[in-house]
Amino acid sequence: xxxxxxxxxxxxxxxxxxxxxxxxxxxxxxxxxxxxxxxxxxxxxxxxxxxxxxxxxxxxxxxxxxxxxxxxxxxxxxxxxxxxxxxxxxxxxxxxxxxxxxxxxxxxxxxxxxxxxxxxxxxxxxxxxxxxxxxxxxxxxxxxxxxxxxxxxxxxxxxxxxxxxxxxxxxxxxxxxxxxxxxxxxxxxxxxxxxxxxxxxxxxxxxxxxxxxxxxxxxxxxxxxxxxxxxxxxxxxxxxxxxxxxxxxxxxxxxxxxxxxxxxxxxxxxxxxxxxx
DNA sequence: CTCAGTGTTCAGTG
DNA sequence: TCACTGAACACTGA
Length: 277
Description:
This protein has about 280 residues and is an alpha+beta fold. The chain folds into 2 domains: about 5-145, Alpha-Beta Barrel (N-terminal domain of MutM-like DNA repair proteins), CATH 3.20.190; about 150-270, Helicase, Ruva Protein, domain 3 (Orthogonal Bundle), CATH 1.10.8.50. It contains 8 helices and 14 strands. It has helices at about 5-20, 40-45, 85-95, 155-165, 170-175, 185-195, 210-230, 240-245; strands spanning about 25-30, 50-60, 60-65, 70-75, 80-85, 110-115, 120-125, 130-135, 150, 180, 255, 255-260, 260-265, 265-270. The protein is elongated. About 35% of the residues are buried. The structure holds a DNA duplex (14 and 14 nucleotides).
Protein backbone atom coordinates (compact mmCIF):
# COMPACT_ATOMS: atom_id res chain seq x y z
CA UNK A 1 0.00 0.00 0.00
CA UNK A 2 1.92 2.90 1.32
CA UNK A 3 3.96 5.63 -0.21
CA UNK A 4 2.93 9.24 0.24
CA UNK A 5 -0.03 9.18 -2.20
CA UNK A 6 -1.59 6.14 -0.54
CA UNK A 7 -1.11 7.62 2.92
CA UNK A 8 -2.56 10.98 1.85
CA UNK A 9 -5.55 9.15 0.34
CA UNK A 10 -5.96 7.24 3.59
CA UNK A 11 -5.73 10.52 5.52
CA UNK A 12 -8.53 12.06 3.49
CA UNK A 13 -10.88 9.13 3.88
CA UNK A 14 -10.11 8.89 7.60
CA UNK A 15 -10.81 12.60 7.99
CA UNK A 16 -14.10 12.29 6.13
CA UNK A 17 -15.29 9.51 8.41
CA UNK A 18 -13.77 10.47 11.74
CA UNK A 19 -13.17 14.20 12.26
CA UNK A 20 -15.51 15.54 14.93
CA UNK A 21 -16.58 12.05 15.97
CA UNK A 22 -16.06 10.40 19.34
CA UNK A 23 -14.50 6.95 19.71
CA UNK A 24 -16.99 4.72 21.48
CA UNK A 25 -15.23 1.36 21.22
CA UNK A 26 -11.69 0.15 20.51
CA UNK A 27 -10.58 -3.31 19.41
CA UNK A 28 -6.86 -3.94 19.69
CA UNK A 29 -5.01 -7.02 18.45
CA UNK A 30 -2.60 -8.44 21.00
CA UNK A 31 0.38 -7.79 18.77
CA UNK A 32 3.56 -6.58 20.48
CA UNK A 33 5.26 -6.11 17.12
CA UNK A 34 2.87 -3.72 15.41
CA UNK A 35 2.17 -1.99 18.72
CA UNK A 36 5.88 -1.88 19.54
CA UNK A 37 5.63 -2.87 23.15
CA UNK A 38 2.51 -0.89 24.05
CA UNK A 39 0.04 -3.08 25.87
CA UNK A 40 -3.44 -3.43 24.38
CA UNK A 41 -5.04 -2.14 27.56
CA UNK A 42 -3.06 1.09 27.37
CA UNK A 43 -4.04 1.65 23.74
CA UNK A 44 -7.69 1.08 24.61
CA UNK A 45 -7.52 3.44 27.57
CA UNK A 46 -5.81 6.17 25.54
CA UNK A 47 -8.39 6.05 22.73
CA UNK A 48 -11.74 5.12 24.23
CA UNK A 49 -13.99 8.13 24.69
CA UNK A 50 -11.72 10.53 22.79
CA UNK A 51 -12.95 12.91 20.15
CA UNK A 52 -10.97 13.03 16.88
CA UNK A 53 -10.03 16.64 16.02
CA UNK A 54 -8.07 16.11 12.81
CA UNK A 55 -6.07 13.59 10.82
CA UNK A 56 -2.56 14.66 9.82
CA UNK A 57 0.27 13.36 7.72
CA UNK A 58 3.98 13.89 7.20
CA UNK A 59 5.65 11.71 4.60
CA UNK A 60 4.33 8.19 5.09
CA UNK A 61 3.33 8.81 8.71
CA UNK A 62 -0.27 9.41 9.70
CA UNK A 63 -1.61 10.56 13.03
CA UNK A 64 -4.89 11.41 14.69
CA UNK A 65 -5.09 14.59 16.79
CA UNK A 66 -7.40 13.84 19.71
CA UNK A 67 -8.99 15.97 22.42
CA UNK A 68 -6.49 14.56 24.90
CA UNK A 69 -2.89 13.36 24.58
CA UNK A 70 -1.24 11.04 23.73
CA UNK A 71 -2.31 10.92 20.09
CA UNK A 72 -2.52 7.92 17.79
CA UNK A 73 0.29 7.53 15.23
CA UNK A 74 0.35 5.04 12.37
CA UNK A 75 2.97 3.89 9.89
CA UNK A 76 1.77 1.32 7.36
CA UNK A 77 5.04 -0.47 6.58
CA UNK A 78 4.89 -2.25 3.24
CA UNK A 79 1.49 -3.88 3.39
CA UNK A 80 -0.58 -1.92 5.88
CA UNK A 81 -3.65 0.11 5.08
CA UNK A 82 -6.57 2.02 6.47
CA UNK A 83 -10.15 0.88 5.96
CA UNK A 84 -13.25 2.87 6.68
CA UNK A 85 -16.87 2.01 6.96
CA UNK A 86 -19.64 4.57 7.11
CA UNK A 87 -22.64 4.22 9.31
CA UNK A 88 -24.78 3.17 6.34
CA UNK A 89 -22.40 0.38 5.34
CA UNK A 90 -22.39 -1.01 8.88
CA UNK A 91 -26.16 -1.11 8.96
CA UNK A 92 -26.06 -3.35 5.91
CA UNK A 93 -24.13 -5.88 7.93
CA UNK A 94 -26.35 -5.78 10.99
CA UNK A 95 -29.18 -6.69 8.65
CA UNK A 96 -27.90 -10.25 8.82
CA UNK A 97 -25.83 -10.55 5.68
CA UNK A 98 -22.18 -9.62 5.59
CA UNK A 99 -21.43 -6.32 3.90
CA UNK A 100 -19.93 -6.73 0.45
CA UNK A 101 -16.55 -5.49 1.59
CA UNK A 102 -16.38 -7.64 4.72
CA UNK A 103 -15.83 -6.20 8.14
CA UNK A 104 -13.55 -6.18 9.96
CA UNK A 105 -11.00 -6.44 7.15
CA UNK A 106 -8.45 -9.26 7.17
CA UNK A 107 -5.37 -8.60 9.30
CA UNK A 108 -7.02 -5.81 11.30
CA UNK A 109 -4.74 -4.72 14.19
CA UNK A 110 -6.79 -1.80 15.45
CA UNK A 111 -10.46 -1.03 15.00
CA UNK A 112 -12.19 2.16 16.15
CA UNK A 113 -15.96 2.42 16.34
CA UNK A 114 -17.35 5.95 16.25
CA UNK A 115 -20.37 7.56 17.83
CA UNK A 116 -22.24 7.78 14.53
CA UNK A 117 -21.72 4.12 13.64
CA UNK A 118 -18.72 4.75 11.37
CA UNK A 119 -15.68 2.53 11.73
CA UNK A 120 -11.95 2.76 11.10
CA UNK A 121 -9.59 -0.20 10.85
CA UNK A 122 -5.82 -0.32 10.56
CA UNK A 123 -4.83 -3.62 8.90
CA UNK A 124 -1.36 -4.98 8.19
CA UNK A 125 -0.65 -8.45 6.85
CA UNK A 126 3.12 -8.49 7.17
CA UNK A 127 3.30 -6.61 10.45
CA UNK A 128 6.06 -4.29 9.30
CA UNK A 129 3.81 -1.36 10.13
CA UNK A 130 3.77 0.37 13.52
CA UNK A 131 1.04 1.84 15.68
CA UNK A 132 2.23 4.17 18.43
CA UNK A 133 1.01 6.60 21.05
CA UNK A 134 2.84 9.94 21.19
CA UNK A 135 2.12 13.04 23.30
CA UNK A 136 3.49 15.31 20.55
CA UNK A 137 4.07 13.37 17.30
CA UNK A 138 5.74 16.16 15.33
CA UNK A 139 8.32 16.79 18.04
CA UNK A 140 9.25 13.16 18.67
CA UNK A 141 10.82 10.34 16.73
CA UNK A 142 10.21 8.92 14.27
CA UNK A 143 8.34 11.89 12.75
CA UNK A 144 10.73 14.55 14.07
CA UNK A 145 13.59 12.99 12.10
CA UNK A 146 11.87 13.30 8.71
CA UNK A 147 12.89 15.68 5.94
CA UNK A 148 10.54 17.95 3.96
CA UNK A 149 7.15 16.51 3.08
CA UNK A 150 7.31 15.63 -0.60
CA UNK A 151 3.77 16.89 -1.27
CA UNK A 152 3.58 20.18 0.60
CA UNK A 153 7.11 21.23 1.51
CA UNK A 154 9.39 20.82 -1.50
CA UNK A 155 11.96 23.62 -0.98
CA UNK A 156 12.68 26.34 -3.55
CA UNK A 157 15.21 25.33 -6.18
CA UNK A 158 18.27 26.93 -4.56
CA UNK A 159 17.62 25.22 -1.26
CA UNK A 160 16.75 21.94 -3.00
CA UNK A 161 20.06 22.07 -4.84
CA UNK A 162 21.99 22.67 -1.61
CA UNK A 163 20.26 19.75 0.11
CA UNK A 164 21.04 17.34 -2.74
CA UNK A 165 24.62 18.47 -3.15
CA UNK A 166 25.27 17.97 0.56
CA UNK A 167 24.61 14.25 0.13
CA UNK A 168 26.94 11.41 -0.72
CA UNK A 169 25.85 8.34 -2.58
CA UNK A 170 23.63 7.67 -5.60
CA UNK A 171 20.70 10.02 -6.20
CA UNK A 172 18.29 7.07 -5.97
CA UNK A 173 19.43 6.41 -2.38
CA UNK A 174 19.06 10.09 -1.52
CA UNK A 175 15.47 10.15 -2.83
CA UNK A 176 14.62 7.11 -0.70
CA UNK A 177 16.14 8.63 2.44
CA UNK A 178 13.20 9.81 4.56
CA UNK A 179 15.41 12.36 6.33
CA UNK A 180 15.84 14.03 2.93
CA UNK A 181 12.35 13.88 1.41
CA UNK A 182 9.59 12.32 3.49
CA UNK A 183 7.14 10.17 1.56
CA UNK A 184 9.18 9.02 -1.44
CA UNK A 185 9.24 5.24 -1.81
CA UNK A 186 10.81 2.84 -4.25
CA UNK A 187 8.55 3.20 -7.28
CA UNK A 188 8.22 6.98 -6.92
CA UNK A 189 12.00 7.39 -6.80
CA UNK A 190 12.32 5.36 -10.01
CA UNK A 191 9.46 7.22 -11.70
CA UNK A 192 10.88 10.64 -10.83
CA UNK A 193 14.36 9.73 -12.10
CA UNK A 194 12.90 8.27 -15.29
CA UNK A 195 10.84 11.37 -16.01
CA UNK A 196 13.78 13.64 -15.14
CA UNK A 197 16.03 11.58 -17.47
CA UNK A 198 18.64 11.02 -14.75
CA UNK A 199 20.40 7.68 -14.16
CA UNK A 200 19.69 6.33 -10.65
CA UNK A 201 23.32 5.53 -9.93
CA UNK A 202 24.57 9.08 -10.48
CA UNK A 203 26.30 10.54 -7.41
CA UNK A 204 23.91 13.11 -5.94
CA UNK A 205 26.68 15.70 -5.77
CA UNK A 206 27.27 15.41 -9.54
CA UNK A 207 23.87 16.66 -10.69
CA UNK A 208 23.89 19.85 -12.75
CA UNK A 209 21.52 22.76 -12.17
CA UNK A 210 19.24 21.85 -15.10
CA UNK A 211 19.09 18.26 -13.85
CA UNK A 212 18.20 19.39 -10.34
CA UNK A 213 15.48 21.64 -11.73
CA UNK A 214 14.03 18.69 -13.67
CA UNK A 215 14.33 16.40 -10.67
CA UNK A 216 12.48 18.83 -8.42
CA UNK A 217 9.78 19.50 -11.03
CA UNK A 218 9.15 15.79 -11.71
CA UNK A 219 9.14 14.97 -7.98
CA UNK A 220 6.32 17.45 -7.49
CA UNK A 221 4.48 16.40 -10.63
CA UNK A 222 4.55 12.66 -9.91
CA UNK A 223 3.40 13.06 -6.33
CA UNK A 224 0.71 15.63 -7.08
CA UNK A 225 -0.65 13.54 -9.92
CA UNK A 226 -0.71 10.35 -7.84
CA UNK A 227 -2.47 12.16 -5.00
CA UNK A 228 -4.99 13.73 -7.36
CA UNK A 229 -5.78 10.26 -8.73
CA UNK A 230 -6.22 8.96 -5.18
CA UNK A 231 -3.22 6.64 -5.51
CA UNK A 232 -5.12 4.54 -8.04
CA UNK A 233 -2.31 3.10 -10.17
CA UNK A 234 -4.65 2.08 -12.96
CA UNK A 235 -5.35 5.77 -13.62
CA UNK A 236 -1.74 6.96 -13.68
CA UNK A 237 -0.67 8.27 -17.11
CA UNK A 238 0.09 5.48 -19.58
CA UNK A 239 3.49 7.05 -20.28
CA UNK A 240 4.71 6.33 -16.74
CA UNK A 241 7.36 3.71 -16.03
CA UNK A 242 5.04 2.64 -13.20
CA UNK A 243 2.99 0.42 -15.50
CA UNK A 244 6.01 -1.59 -16.67
CA UNK A 245 8.15 -1.92 -13.57
CA UNK A 246 6.29 -4.70 -11.79
CA UNK A 247 6.44 -7.38 -14.47
CA UNK A 248 10.15 -7.85 -14.16
CA UNK A 249 11.13 -9.60 -17.34
CA UNK A 250 13.97 -9.10 -19.79
CA UNK A 251 13.02 -7.60 -23.14
CA UNK A 252 10.44 -5.21 -21.69
CA UNK A 253 10.70 -1.80 -23.30
CA UNK A 254 9.49 1.74 -22.75
CA UNK A 255 9.37 4.24 -25.64
CA UNK A 256 11.25 1.64 -27.66
CA UNK A 257 14.13 1.32 -25.19
CA UNK A 258 15.04 -1.57 -22.88
CA UNK A 259 14.16 -1.42 -19.20
CA UNK A 260 16.87 -2.58 -16.84
CA UNK A 261 16.55 -3.83 -13.28
CA UNK A 262 19.35 -3.67 -10.73
CA UNK A 263 19.88 -3.07 -7.05
CA UNK A 264 20.72 0.54 -6.19
CA UNK A 265 20.48 2.02 -2.73
CA UNK A 266 19.61 -1.46 -1.48
CA UNK A 267 16.38 -1.66 -3.48
CA UNK A 268 15.28 -3.07 -6.80
CA UNK A 269 15.58 -0.24 -9.30
CA UNK A 270 13.93 -0.14 -12.73
CA UNK A 271 15.34 2.32 -15.25
CA UNK A 272 15.90 2.93 -18.95
CA UNK A 273 19.64 3.40 -19.63
CA UNK A 274 19.05 4.75 -23.15
CA UNK A 275 16.94 7.61 -21.82
CA UNK A 276 18.51 8.32 -18.42
CA UNK A 277 21.97 9.86 -18.17
C1' DC B 1 9.24 -24.91 -2.44
C1' DT B 2 11.45 -20.60 -3.42
C1' DC B 3 11.78 -15.91 -3.69
C1' DA B 4 10.80 -11.04 -4.18
C1' DG B 5 8.69 -7.26 -2.04
C1' DT B 6 4.86 0.27 -2.47
C1' DG B 7 9.53 -0.07 4.26
C1' DT B 8 12.55 0.93 8.22
C1' DT B 9 16.23 0.13 11.53
C1' DC B 10 20.43 -1.42 13.34
C1' DA B 11 25.08 -3.48 13.64
C1' DG B 12 29.31 -3.74 11.46
C1' DT B 13 32.60 -1.70 8.43
C1' DG B 14 35.20 1.64 5.84
C1' DT C 1 30.55 11.92 11.05
C1' DC C 2 28.99 10.08 7.02
C1' DA C 3 27.61 6.44 4.28
C1' DC C 4 27.41 1.81 2.54
C1' DT C 5 26.08 -3.19 3.07
C1' DG C 6 23.56 -6.77 4.72
C1' DA C 7 20.52 -8.69 7.87
C1' DA C 8 16.49 -8.59 10.42
C1' DC C 9 11.73 -7.90 10.93
C1' DA C 10 7.34 -11.16 9.22
C1' DC C 11 4.35 -12.85 5.91
C1' DT C 12 1.83 -13.16 1.50
C1' DG C 13 1.38 -14.41 -3.05
C1' DA C 14 3.30 -15.39 -7.55
